[in-house]
Amino acid sequence: MHIGILTGGGDAPGLNAVIRAVVKTAISRYEYDITGIEDGFDGLIERAFKALRPLTLKDVRGILPQGGTILGAANRGNPFARKVIRDGQEVVEDCSGLVIERLRAADIDVLIVVGGDGTLRIGYELYQKGCAVVGVPKTIDNDLGGTDVTFGFDTALNTATDAIDKLHTTAESHHRVMVVEVMGRDAGWIALHSGIAGGADVILIPEIPFRWDVLADAIKARSKGGAKFSIVVAAEGAQPADGQQIFSRAGDGVTTVARLGGIGNEVARRLEEMTGMETRCTVLGHVQRGGRPTPFARLLATRYGAAAVRL
Ligand code: F6P
Question: Which of 54, 138, 190, 287 is deepest in the core (most CB within 10 A)?
Answer without folding.
Answer: 138
